[in-house]
Amino acid sequence: MFERLSEQGFIRVGSRRFKIGKRLFEEMKIYSPCQELKKYKNPLLIVHGSNDSKVSYKDTLDCFNALSNSSKRFELIEGSEHGFHEEPYESKVVDMIVKFFSN
């Protein structure tokens, strides 16, 4: 994987073949999403697929539980992989996000 990253300047991931470049890997060494989310105090929705092979459910839940945000909400999408690219997961997540921002 890192050989392709060095040669091509990016790698492709997921069913949609999303390009991830060197810069993202460099930023991943610097930033901690959970630490950044601890600073966020507005309404927050975290959605996680139960079959996510990219991000650990435990890590996501541990981060969620560490947040002091009183307007946080966690939703687990049973059966979904990372990215919610298949139906019915995609529609379920889109509906959930629309409702979240409509309130």
TrEMBL record:
Residues 23-102 form the Peptidase S9 prolyl oligopeptidase catalytic domain. Keywords: Hydrolase. Pfam families: Peptidase_S9 (PF00326). GO terms for biological process: proteolysis. The keyword Coiled coil does not apply. GO terms for molecular function: serine-type peptidase activity. InterPro entries: AB_hydrolase_fold, Peptidase_S9_cat. This is Hydrolase of the alpha/beta superfamily. It comes from Candidatus Woesebacteria bacterium GW2011_GWA1_39_21b.
